[in-house]
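Researcher: For the annotation table, I need structure tokens for LysR family transcriptional regulator. Please keep the output clean. Sequence:
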Amino acid sequence: MNWDDIRLFLAVARAESLTGAGKALRLDPATLGRRIARLEETLGTALFVRSPRGYGLSEAGERLMARAIHAEQALQEGAEELREQEGQLTGSVRVGAPDGVANFLLPQVTAALCDANPGLEVQIVAQPRVFNLSRREADMAIAVSPPKTGRLTVQKITDYHLHLAATRSYLQQHPPIRELADVAGHRIVGYIPDLIFDSELDYLSEVGAARVTLASNSVVVQLNWLRTGAGLGIVHDFAMPFAPGLVKVLPDRLALRRSFYLVRHGDDRRNARLSRFAGLLAEGVRAELARLEAL
């Protein structure tokens, strides 16, 4: 068994399909399937459970994956140490984040990090869900609540604030909102209830709305609805500068506060490069959030 076999195994395990892994590796899925079958034959055990849904890891595959990830990290760290320029970060770092953070905070922060570290490459995975760091879907992730399980390290980055908002034109064309009870008579923009991936994002009870008329799992889609005057919705204060037509509604009656957390795999505490990047990322997010909320 050689490293190339392990590299292919990891790609299939993460993508859970030959097609997805083949795209990532730029390798024909049929060829990849034969390579995986040959690896299983060499090891004398099935690494995957095949089904119509794709390739899931067997018990033997789970054990191999844990060791393969350690080997992958060791190789990456060794290569990066050799390439690293004095005082600068190099190599690739993948950050997972909800799409609000990914769209309104991380672009500015990570661009500044790359300006200061020309050998650094940053990938942002913007998806409204919890990331599986054990499977290395990302090197680190930003979350809206600290995870309760898993071999993870969690660092609180900062608090952030949200308010009810709408366009002036919407407010002028619809019944006045003087109390929270008045919200019930308005069209609400928000999350799809059964796709809310974290209870911290369930704002309905605090808004006092019975249902969401225009719903999306994407914060950006919600913001664009609100920008068109489609209704009322909860908006991050740090996103308000990107939608200058929006105004806060009942800011003295309804003000929400939530927190961002930086989550990393427990084994990465010994990785000086990722630890340094994590510190700079958290510092940058705090500064950029404070700047945008003050506008």
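Researcher: And a one-line annotation?
Model: The mean pLDDT is 90.
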